Amino acid sequence: MSILLLTAVLVSSCVSKKKFVELETKHDLSKTELVDLKANLQKCLIDNERESTKVFTLLEQIKYLQEDKKTALKQVENLTVLTQSSSDNIKTVISQLSEKDKYINGIREAMTQKDSLNLAIKFHLTKNLTDGIRDEDIEVNVEKTVVFISISDKLLFKSGSYNVTDKAYTVLEKIAKVINDQPTMEVMIEGHTDTTPIKRDIIQDNWDLSALRATSITRILQYKYGVQPERLIAAGRSQYIPLAPNDTAANKSINRRTKIIIMPKLNQFFELLEQDATK
């Protein structure tokens, strides 16, 4: 009886241990499957987030392209209007250029006439002024629409003085005749000195000397030879516009000069512009 009981216990014990091993194996397998499932779930979540980001980016691009399309269509509409406007503007500009060409040609014709007049003045001055006067003492030039007469001061003044010499009247009389023959021209008288300092009586420096010399010539042209005073301009330029370096006595003599400039009146020039602009 005891032997039978012992055998039954041993058999029962073997069966329970076998089931335990089987259950333990299944448990381990379940744990592994669970870990794999969690890993797969995590991967799916990451993939889902990545795809969601892509979808969002694509939606934004679609939105941008739609807005860009609207803008492009609006620009095309504006361009159509602008093209028509530009065409009208081009026609207007061409018309204005045509008018300006007429205006410029009118100015050129007027300048040509003025140049011809000044060349005639130069010829007349050169012919009359150099009669009995050494060529190097007086020079007549034409630049654009202006006649320049440069007279050496030894023909007009004594050294350091602004009183006109007797022989100067012969030159000034001839110049005055030419000036009076051209009543539409203005006349500027410029005094120029060398760099030698001067200070005497009412003369403080070369500014004073050049201005006083210019004024002396201006008064003679007005009071003795009848040039209208509103046409005359007196200017002192001192020593600051030399023709040669002030390093020798000969060069200083060149720089001591009086320049008489015959030129068109500015108001007449502007009137000419206005007349051509209205044609």
UniProtKB/TrEMBL annotation:
Taxonomic source organism: Polaribacter filamentus
Keyword match Membrane: yes
Entry keywords, A to Z: Membrane
Residue ranges annotated for the OmpA-like domain, each copy included: 144-266
InterPro entries, A to Z: Bact_OuterMem_StrucFunc (IPR050330), OmpA-like (IPR006665), OmpA-like_sf (IPR036737)
Pfam family, one: OmpA
PROSITE patterns, alphabetized: OMPA_2 (PS51123)
Gene Ontology CC annotation, any one: membrane
Coiled-coil region: none
Protein name per UniProt: OmpA-like domain-containing protein
Keyword Transport belongs to the record: no
